[in-house]
Design a protein that fits this description.
By secondary structure, this protein is α+β, with helices and mostly antiparallel strands. About 15% of the residues lie in helices and about 35% in strands.
């Protein structure tokens, strides 16, 4: 009679172990490629985005400039990218100032050109696949099952991550803003002209004001860490930052410190993307920062990138 409870306990533990193993495999290992319609929908006429670039045929066409490429800059007729390295609060920060002539030059790409769960590659490899001049890691959408995903005007996922989750929106006019996912429908954002929507956060600066504090930082961002973030001075003029961290001589930044950094660079808006071991900046095929995994150099495989392609 005493053996029956022991058998039941062993069976329960075995089932619990199998269930836990399945959850871990589904979260981190099992690749799920999801087929979607990748045709961008037409933007409705009642779009909230009304200030579109216009072409004045009578205006004088600017004379073409000579393309100049260095180990930290790329200047051509279509865009300019100038990258500097700064030391801020005991942390090395890569700072890319980007000026575009067209909003469609700011793009996103999936690892292996595929949307799905656990479809991953390094930023360097994904950047090479799309012939990118410049690239950073995105929001690592594949790590979660929820949170808005809109890329290049196509809606891939419309589920809300949480009531406090903020998504960043890159609009078709080159402006950037953010919104709480619970307050909108993803399909409406597409109809209004959203080209890319990434779900991570928090928003650092809005309307020129720092909107995070040391007290209200979410748990995952309280510590000083490597960071990736995007800021806007004005539409088509961006500051993109990747900072080091988790090393003896690289303390990393909190989100409040990151917000202050963007404010010092004149940004009217800034948003925090996936950081930590994901934080990576690639320029002309080379990784500029020091991606870390437990203190060792290692570029993490992620789901997606934000990039500028070759003209």
């Amino acid at each position: 009679m005493k053996r029956r409870p022991i058998i039941f306990s062993l069976c329960y533990l075995a089932i619990l172990g199998l269930f836990t193993a399945w959850i871990l495999l589904d979260q981190f290992v099992i690749v799920r490629r999801i087929a979607v319609d990748q045709t961008p929908p037409a933007v409705t006429t009642d779009s909230v985005i009304t200030d579109e670039p216009t072409t004045d045929e009578s205006s004088t066409t600017a004379a073409p400039i000579e393309t100049v490429i260095t180990d930290r800059s790329y200047i051509c007729n279509e865009f300019s990218i100038v990258i500097t390295e700064e030391r801020y609060l005991g942390t090395t920060v890569q700072v890319a100032e980007i000026k575009l002539t067209s909003p469609d030059q700011l793009k996103t790409a999936f690892a292996d050109n595929t949307y799905g769960r656990n479809v991953k590659d390094t930023v360097q490899n994904t950047a090479e696949a799309v012939d990118a001049v410049f690239a950073i890691n995105g929001d690592y959408y594949g790590y979660r099952k929820t949170g808005f995903v809109i890329r290049n005007g196509v809606l891939y996922r419309d589920s809300v991550y949480s009531d406090t989750q903020e998504a960043v929106i890159i609009w078709k006019d080159g402006s950037i803003s953010s919104v709480f996912e619970k307050d909108v429908k993803a399909e409406d954002l597409v109809a209004q002209g959203a080209m890319h929507v990434l779900s991570f956060g928090p928003t650092l600066i809005a309307d020129g004001e720092i909107v995070v504090t040391a007290d209200d930082e979410v748990d995952r961002n309280k510590k000083s860490n490597p960071r990736t973030a995007i800021g806007m001075i004005e539409p088509l003029h961006y500051i993109i930052v990747v900072s080091d961290g988790r090393l003896d001589n690289e303390r990393g930044l909190s989100v409040l410190e990151l917000a202050r950094f963007f404010s010092q660079h004149g940004c009217s808006f800034a948003y925090n993307l996936d950081g930590g071991g994901s934080a990576t900046m690639v320029f002309m095929g080379e990784v500029l920062n020091y991606p870390t995994s437990k203190g060792d150099y290692k570029e993490r495989e992620v789901s997606d990138i934000v990039y500028i392609g070759k003209p």
